[in-house]
Amino acid sequence: MTTLRDRSRADAGARRRAERPKPSRTARMRVSARIARRQVRRAWVSSLLIMSLIALPIAGMAGVAVVVSSTFATPAERVTVELGRMSAWVEPLWSAESGFWQKPDDPYEFGNSSQWGGSDGSSEPELSADPRAALPPGTEIVPVSSGDERIETVAGTAPARAVAGDVTDARFQGAYALIDGRAPSDDGEVLVTPAVLERAGATIGGTLTLADGERFTVTGTFDASTAADADLVIAFFDADRYSPIRSFLPQADIDSERLGALNAAGFGVYARQLVLNPPPFDQPYDDYTFPTSAEQDQQRQLALAAGIGGGGIAAGYMVVMLAGAAFAVSARRQQRALAIAASVGAEPRDLRRIVLLQGAVLGLIAGAVGLAAGVGLSAFLLPILNNGSATVFWGFHVPWLLLAGVLVFAVLVGSASAWMPARTVGKSDTISALRGARRPMTVTAARPLWGSLLIIVGVALTVLSGIAAGAVAISDTIPGDSPLRWIPTVGIVGGPILAQVGILVSGRWLLWLSSRLLSRIGLAARLASRDAVANGARTVPAFAAIGATVFVGVFAVAMGMMTAEQSARNYTYSAPAGTVVSDVSSMDASVLTAGVAQDAVDDVQRLFSSSGATGIGVVSAQPPVYFAETSADIPADLDHAMLVAPARSLLAPDEDDYRGISYEGSPTDNLSVVVVDDLETVMGVTLSPAQRAAYAEGAVIVADDRYLTDGRVEVGSWSARDAYDRMIPSNIWAGDEIGNRQWARSAPAIPVTAPHQNIVAAIAPTTAREWGIAAVPLRVIAEFPEGAEMNSQDHLNALAGSLDTDEYQVSMWRETGPDSPAVWLVPLLGAVAVLVLGASAVALGLARFERRPDDATLAAVGGTPGLRRRIGLWQGLVIAGFGTFAGAAAGILPPIGFWLQSQTSYQPLDLADIPWWLLGALAVALPLGIAAVNWLVPPREPELTRRNVIA
Q1: Which helix (H) or strand (E) holds 364?
Q2: C-alpha separations of 926 from 237, 547, 870, 921 in Å
Q3: What is the three-class DSSP state of 800?
């Protein structure tokens, strides 16, 4: 008989345990990765947005890395540009047997047994001439020398670089190259760069004329690797045209022993094998170590990495904020799918891992795309940015190690963007998520308290650091290398950043407070503000990104304008703004005579008149004596007359507050001679008929009221030798040691207001002759119509030196005044506006996308399209307004801190220089404009569908 018996329960449990598969350590990771990958593909729109946000700064970082790295030369590239295919060059740098030494791979780091880096000026070394004695017998030498020339051009004359020697030798390939024509065959022929042909209006086979009249036949064109396309370079036939001669060695074995022999003979050496494989260098000093070329290259790479890293962190912050908002929206869209995974055994850490892996995957893909785009863009831009010189971009250098770090940074940015949404997902209620329910947002007091504390600490830190920095600046007891010198500056910048972090931490609470106020305005404002509070994971990062951008913009505008206006107040004008100035000076150390100076001024006046000048004025003064080597070189009968400042305008001898640098013009060369009709051109002042009559009768026009005493000025004269030895009044400090005064007189003064020019006081030529002042014409000032060619500094540079002779030289420039802040202010404001608009577009686009169910509900209960547009208006005001207000409030703190720091200096910064109206417009106009655009763009037609439960 067969019976059926139940298996014991213990045996059944053991069997189940035996049949249960062993858990795999990587199974959860593989499942999480698979789900993350699928979610990335499923939510491709938000994935594309997040990747775009990450890829843009990565592309910029990669492009900058490649472009900057391409400006770093490798040893092989340096050797090619310097030597071509030659082995080495040697050049006399010092006298023989003087203990001369150099770095093996850099002949310009040199010295001798008693000096470092060249002569101390007390004596000139006798250079060796021929290196053959220090080279093996029979060594081939290709001599080349270099210098400077001036050539005649279509517009006048222009400076040009010059080389002399057989630069077309095939062994110079890489350093020089023949482009067209043939090499010179005698001293009367030259090669030129194509730019010379264009500027001189010459052709191959034509004639090139130097400024001294020497003429040469142009046999062809060539390229010098170190010259830009626009550079003027000439190659002469005779290698000994200039001194010293550099001897190139086509084939030479330069080792450490040979280097020592050449250095002992006074020759500097640049050798291929020494540069490519530098031997050990015996450092000549115990207290200073010369960095090797490899160490210098490494320092440049580290500096580039630090710059890329700093910019990456700043950009990464904005990306994390905006991409984090996008991830928050995406995570809520995945709520049901993640809840299903949780219902079948996924733990909270698995859900967090899924969202974090989405961020890592998107960061990896965006990083790869950004790197490819950045490298490709740099390859496109390098030929455009290159000016033709091989030393601008040595090659196309891709820093693979740095780009690998950038790729890792992209992954970290993507993961950081997903961190907060992942943390939220891990805390979600599975049952509620499966039902699609949402709970009303509650605001706790913890974060507002911490945020408020950070704001208070940040503001206090900025103010206290500014006061401390000012006290430290005037302290004589704190060492210059003490951390106390720079810690307050860190506090000035760090305090506002801390305050902005506080605003970010308490952002949801601030939105909640604003919603209570806005709820009283109307239905649209109530719904928009409550939507911002309910979706704080999206709105807070968005206005934080906007705030960071506005913070940088406000900080830069405020500090830039304060420093720019301070620089403008300290700017020294050479003449009224907008005029063209030409100075005449002696070609050597001799005193410029009246006849020579008059000839030069006549030439300048003829040039200005023929160029269409509408006004020309000449300024005469006593000949400058500071070019003389000693006071004995100055004629004994030459005097120096000047205005003497009264005692009330002088400082005590022990008082040094830099007040002297704020004066207009020179305090000792303060007397000019000007014809009355030229005053309007040279000083920008217009005299009344009575003043013109007084000026002709001996009155002094005075632009600096420090010299006035009861409407008169004191004039004194000393020997020019005393002026050279500074034995005259300084007109700054009292108690100066002065020489014997030749004469003194008091003269009536005509005070004028002319701060933006360089003349302190002017007298008529008749007055100068009456006082015995031997004035010579030294400066010509001219006015030209707007748009005239003479207003171009490039044209003036081309004319510079065209009037030079063996006795005098003429310089020309246009007085433009201090640089206009608009040069940097307009691009800065444009960049801030673009970044704010971009961040707002992302935030408001996400808000519209997430509000679609709410729009459907509004439409179902009778909400009009106008209501939904007004909600968009208020959403723009809330998000952009919060961001700009927070950024502006934090951004103005560092300028205030630096203003406090400067209060202990003689010329402190001025808060009135900050364009408050501009900052106010930035903080108000941007949010209004963004809100208006958001109102103008109509929302999509709502789709009536199932509404999630509010549980």
Answers
A1: helix 348-385
A2: 66, 12, 18, 8
A3: coil
Token digits for 180? Answer: 């067209």
| Nearest alpha-carbon partner for 468 in 433, 492, 500, 441 | 492
Closest of 656, 641, 750 to residue 705, by C-alpha: 750
Question: What pLDDT, on a 0 to 100 scale, did the predictor assign at position 656?
Answer: 53
Mean pLDDT, residues 277-293: 73
Q: Burial code of 354-375, b = ≥16 C-beta within 10 A, e = fewer? A: bbbbbbbbbbbbbbebbbebbb
E-strand stretches of 796-872: 808-814
| Kind of pairing between the strands at 101-103 and 671-673 | unpaired
**Tens digits of residue pLDDT in 579-603:** 999 888 887 766 778 888 888 888 8
* Among candidate residues 835, 839, 788, 851, the one with its CA nearest the CA of residue 814: 788
Per-residue pLDDT of 466-494, as tens digits, reads 787 777 776 667 776 677 777 777 777 77
pLDDT at 332 over 80: no
**φ/ψ of residue 936, rounded to 5:** -70, -35
Buried b (16+ CB within 10 A) or exposed e, 43-67: beebbebbbebbbbbbbbbbbbbbb
Phi, psi of 923 (to 5 degrees): -75, -20
Task: Provide the pairing of β-strand 157-165 with 233-236.
Answer: parallel
Residue 431 vs residues 97, 336, 339, 347, 436: alpha-carbon distances, Å: 93, 10, 8, 14, 9
3-state SS track over 574-615: CCCCCCEEEEEEECCCCCCCHHHHHHHHHHHHHHHHHCCCCE
Closest of 948, 520, 599 to residue 778, by C-alpha: 599
DSSP-based three-state secondary structure for 483: helix
Q: Is the dihedral of CA 238, 243, 249, 252 positive or negative?
A: positive
User: What average pLDDT score do residues 797-814 get?
Assistant: 77
Per-residue model confidence as pLDDT tens digits over 629-660: 777 878 888 888 999 989 888 887 766 544 44
Per-residue pLDDT, 120: 44
Extract the tokens encoding 378: 């740099």
Separation CA 258–CA 236 (nearest Å):
31
